[in-house]
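Question: Hello, beginner here. Any chance you could explain the protein record under this note? Any guidance would be welcome.
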Amino acid sequence: MARDYLDLTKALSVSLTDKLWERKGHAQAAACTYRSIDQFGDSITLSGKIFIPKEGKAERIILCPHFTITANSEAPSECWPPESFLAQKNYILLMPDYIGYGVTASRVHPYLQAQLAAQNSIDMLRAAMPFLLELNRYPQADSIYIVGFSQGAAVAIAALQQLEQSGLCPVKKCFASSGPYDVAATYDLCVERNHIGMAFVIPAFVMGTDAAYNLHIHPDSIFTPWMCKRLDYVLSKKHSVVPTSIYLGRGKLTKYLSPAGMDKSRGEQKKLYEGYLRSSLVHIYGGDTIFSSWTPHTPIYLMHSTEDDLVDFACSEHLKAMFVHNGATSVEYDFGPYGGHIRSMLRFFRKLDNML
């Protein structure tokens, strides 16, 4: 392991002045470990970071699954991620590393398998609650907030569904923005338009789905020779999102996917597409309709830019269609021309800063 980790199962042996705690502004944080399950249902130790106020009782817990990253150095346990500004607002912030990052960096990240990442995130919450009680730092409110942007937004919605069904703890409100709720439609639309806004997600899309469902995909059957030569760079987890985005660029999807990779009707791409459908929280595209019967009762703030250049706005349109179909009345929809993916992220963070 690259660092020392605080074990959330051993609160009695932990001091708040321990060297494991990093301090910044009004918050202190520690990389931590806890137990969960992997995509095969096997027990696994995962990592993340827990943020608490330096002094006094926090208002409540925020569970915050992170957005897409490409380098292990961007994992919450390894840095102070952008979402950590919430820790300065008198909240306890829980940010899990997804499988494939932190203590599990040697594994392939099962990208966009939101239900699994949600379970992993909830297991961090489950471990943190008694930990905070034993430290006498449990927050004033029993209910929590859930916050997520992009990949984290899909995980946030999946986590809300699981928490409503399990009753582990009440959720005050869920804030989600720009999420890939419909993974299959994301692929469909990219193929239809022969365009990808940020190509760094393509290897994660394919190899992550392969890992999630144990498909044994041969990369050279899905990627072009140009992309195959660059896989080691992208999958090394040594390079963060910005240089990886510059390295791979953007543009026609046929630059990155082979003819077989563009055809979901046969071969290995058919297996991958079935994985995309399994990973989708909702899917209504090309005549296919997949709805869950879940009707959320927790208030949800759902934001998405109609100009998003990475996660198509259709994803939020489809999620809204499911909520409306199921009779949900607790969802606030904030859709508008808010710029590209990164610009809309900054808007979402400003909204959070005002609402929390």
User: Anything to note?
Assistant: The longest helix spans residues 114-134. The mean pLDDT is 94. DSSP finds eleven helices and twelve strands in the chain.
